[in-house]
Amino acid sequence: xxxxxxxxxxxxxxxxxxxxxxxxxxxxxxxxxxxxxxxxxxxxxxxxxxxxxxxxxxxxxxxxxxxxxxxxxxxxxxxxxxxxxxxxxxxxxxxxxxxxxxxxxxxxxxxxxxxxxxxxxxxxxxxxxxxxxxxxxxxxxxxxxxxxxxxxxxxxxxxxxxxxxxxxxxxxxxxxxxxxxxxxxxxxxxxxxxxxxxxxxxxxxxxxxxxxxxxxxxxxxxxxxxxxxxxxxxxxxxxxxxxxxxxxxxxxxxxxxxxxxxxxxxxxxxxxxxxxxxxxxxxxxxxxxxxxxxxxxxxxxxxxxxxxxxx
Length: 311
Hints:
This protein has one helix at 6-30, and strands at residues 36-55, 58-78, 84-96, 102-117, 123-136, 139-154, 159-172, 182-193, 201-213, 220-232, 237-251, 257-273, 278-291, 298-310. The protein is mainly beta. The chain starts with 5 loop residues before the first helix and ends with a strand. The model is unreliable at 1-17 and 19-33 (pLDDT under 50).
């Protein structure tokens, strides 16, 4: 990463806020219509997460404490046919003061089309599209376009299943990382279970992802799972236990897997609702990545703290 100068910050903000302004403009235009809902949120926080940092002989994966800001805006409109249209924009600013003293700006725009059908609206189909860009060190790092579809079925009051397919294309700045342009393929199958018929819930997801880069050694296949359990503590607080794991295999030019990663992350968090508009979350846990390439392996405790204001 490169240090960020004041002019580069201005350029980054102009590019990212452009998408946000587009949605705000749509919101103002549609505010007089019926069946229109507008949502905005601002989150500020700090978390300990993995980051690639430079050293004498290359790149090394480490855990770093990073402050961040996430701004989102969404316009939702329900049409007479029952179709729901959503347009959104987001901007995330993340600082890396420990390793590179640099800042990332990632933001984009999204669009969704949703339709519910079947008895008691048990089925829901959603078509999604998104475009985003990452700016780092005063220059763009990548552009990405994704399209996807999601089908959800609510079996009854205690069970709900969701299947998701997504296709993406990432265009990397060759000056930043040569050969990393890639096509993304993702499939997810998730299930939500409320065994006690109350606010307590168990969510599980399995997924398979393949990324095919211009340089085959940067392509990989990944299989993983995510599991979470949520339970109320009182009327204004609840805790969330999260567990995620994946196995990732990278290929070489000859198609032989030359790098294997095994990742495991577990956290316990508490969400507290301060008011209808403000909530906080704090969590702690452990993050570990075992890799056949020593510099890509890391492990250690992680913590996070955030506050979200919605209106």
